[in-house]
DNA sequence: CTGAAAGCGCTTACAG
DNA sequence: CTGAAAGCGCTTACAG
């Protein structure tokens, strides 16, 4: 080991690097040598020698969705920083069975922990259970708490409530809502957040102002159109995600309904879309990249402590969200 | 090594796995043992022992653009399959100097090859030169050949020409073009492809039908609007990318210009956007995920052969593109 | 607090 | 074609 250049044993270098108790002189010498030689620890050697494996598996829908992009980004950024290797297995969206196969494949390849994507992870959990994984697992970007799984997520209920209250504060009363089908995990918190805000401020929820759609632009366009064609249309529409919200924007444009003058529109997720439409879309930001980094960090910590004590239950990390008010609500 | 379970030496297992000449009996015994034990080679050990390093560094703009998502996806998929480790360094778009720093950082961390993203990679190349990297480098998704760098890309010139010819074949003569500023590498091939097709079919290029914009929806909206407000507006508009094309779609909607009845619109890149607008957008598909996988494979091969012979010059892999004709052109 | 010993699972370079 | 030897760069578990 080159850093014995400092006149000390390789062991001492290892000790310094790993934060073992060392003398000040020792530390200084080692750090000087490291600096001078531009030394960087060899990950492969470290992985081989240490009992603790540092491979994390990732289930990933092979799509180009901005949220997926951010997830991958955050995971790989953390992996690079922490020296863990990432293994990616593609999944096909509704096929939960294939998910379990992929998890098994990852474990066979040495993954000591698994990172699960939103929706798919939650659906696997409700179909299976944590024990099936037999290793630390985190579902990143889960819409809500998952009974059997650790999560890193925002409080979507609170976010939906806040954004609805923001709309009420801007003077809206007839606030339409585009909900997701109930089978999707993201349905409940966003919908209930909307309801809670309406109730709390004594605003009546008109059934005619509620429409359902399944994620996509076209569904937002159609559902938004139905609401706008009402004899007494809403003055604001809160869509369960950005794609549907951009559909609403298009529905308004087609009908010459001015946004935000005659109609305010709000989305959810604040993806790349939100700022590539006109007018720029108010949306709830889900900091997926940071959440995914956090998930990798926590997974690594869990892996390392598994050898030692505390096999605790699932934990939830709830990170703060922000609401970006933009021109689509007159901001 | 567990697979000596087969009653042979670890060396033989290694030979079998690495395709060294072995007897049939040997191979059978080893494969049986592998099967039985569910054995998977330890990447870390392999990396440590082999002279050939298997770490590839990746410069990456930390954005949520669908093309970035696909790039990351493809790279990580190939990395998982080939057992190479990926290191990611975030870059900030126009700061080429930071790019060189990041490359140095990656090399220090053990990266034996570098994967460069579109635009940024090409701009670094024209500002620096291959020798600066001192290792195999590929610029994935480059718009055109790069004199000093290997590339994996589509023939954007040909694609732009084809799509323009498709428009001509559909009866259009007044075909507008939204070009990128000349400083961006993607400008030239797309623009020249358009010009070549027009010339080839004897269709006059009207200067008034050419507008310039810088990638974003808003720019497409504005530039598209200018063309549509002309006394004699174009019947088709070819935008240099999907964001601008969706801007054109919005500009048409605002003016109640029916797409595709009165106006056809074409984009470039065929990102997630193209199918999340109305009408679905005709666009040139850049298979970024597959291209990025290919780039990782080639980089690995180059790393392995570097120890041996042939330090050849930069190579270009041109993969086939497809044009997805959709409703925005009446298909 | 420090370091000599042994080993992580593979491969290279070589001898049979 | 096959395998005994040595070593990749680190760490664990221990003795000083």
Overview of this structure, please?
The structure is a homodimer of 331-residue chains. Chain A has 331 residues and is α/β, with parallel strands linked by helices. Chain A has three domains: 2-41, no CATH class; 51-154 and 288-321, Rossmann fold; 156-285, 3-Layer(aba) Sandwich (Rossmann fold). Helix content of chain A is 42%, strand content 16%. Chain A is built from eleven helices and twelve strands. In chain A, the strands form two sheets. A six-stranded parallel beta sheet of chain A has the order 2-1-3-4-5-11, sandwiched between helices. In chain A, α7 packs parallel to α8 (187-200). The longest helix of chain A is centred in the last third of the chain and has 19 residues, at 288-306. The first copy, chain A, starts with 9 loop residues before the first helix and ends in a 7-residue tail after the last strand. The relative contact order of chain A is 0.12. Chains A and B meet through α3, α4, β2, α9 and α10 of A and α3, α4, β2, α9 and α10 of B. The structure holds a DNA duplex (16 and 16 nucleotides). Chains A, B: It holds the Pfam family LacI. Chains A, B: One of its GO terms (molecular function) is DNA binding. Chains A, B: Residues 1-50 form the HTH lacI-type domain.
């Amino acid at each position: 080991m080159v850093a014995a250049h400092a006149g000390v044993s390789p062991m001492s270098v290892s000790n310094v690097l790993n934060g073992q108790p060392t003398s000040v002189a020792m530390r200084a010498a080692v750090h000087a040598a490291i600096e001078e030689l531009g030394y960087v620890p060899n990950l492969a050697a470290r992985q081989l020698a240490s009992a603790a494996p540092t491979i994390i598996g990732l289930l990933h829908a092979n799509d180009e969705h901005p949220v997926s992009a951010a997830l991958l980004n955050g995971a790989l950024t953390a992996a690079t920083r922490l020296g863990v290797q990432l293994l990616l297995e593609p999944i096909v969206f509704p096929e939960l069975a294939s998910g379990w196969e992929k998890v098994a494949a990852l474990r066979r390849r040495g993954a000591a922990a698994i990172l699960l994507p939103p929706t798919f992870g939650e659906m696997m959990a409700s179909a299976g259970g944590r024990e099936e994984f037999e290793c630390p697992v985190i579902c990143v970007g889960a819409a809500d708490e998952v009974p059997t799984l650790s999560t890193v997520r925002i409080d979507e209920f609170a976010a939906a409530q806040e954004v609805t209250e923001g709309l009420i504060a801007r003077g809206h009363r007839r606030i339409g809502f585009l909900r997701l089908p109930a089978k999707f995990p993201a349905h409940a918190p966003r919908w209930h957040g909307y309801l809670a805000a309406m109730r709390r401020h004594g605003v009546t929820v008109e059934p005619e102002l509620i429409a359902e759609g399944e994620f996509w632009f076209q569904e937002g366009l159609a559902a938004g159109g139905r609401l706008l064609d009402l004899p007494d249309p809403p003055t604001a529409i809160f869509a369960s995600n950005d794609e549907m919200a951009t559909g609403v924007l298009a529905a308004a444009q087609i009908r010459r309904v001015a946004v935000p003058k005659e109609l305010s529109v709000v989305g959810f997720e604040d993806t790349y879309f939100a700022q590539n439409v006109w007018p720029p879309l108010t949306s709830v930001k889900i900091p997926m990249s940071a959440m995914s980094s956090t998930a990798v960090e926590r997974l690594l910590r869990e892996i390392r402590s598994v050898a030692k004590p505390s096999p605790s239950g699932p934990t939830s990390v709830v990170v703060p969200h922000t609401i970006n008010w933009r021109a689509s609500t007159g901001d």
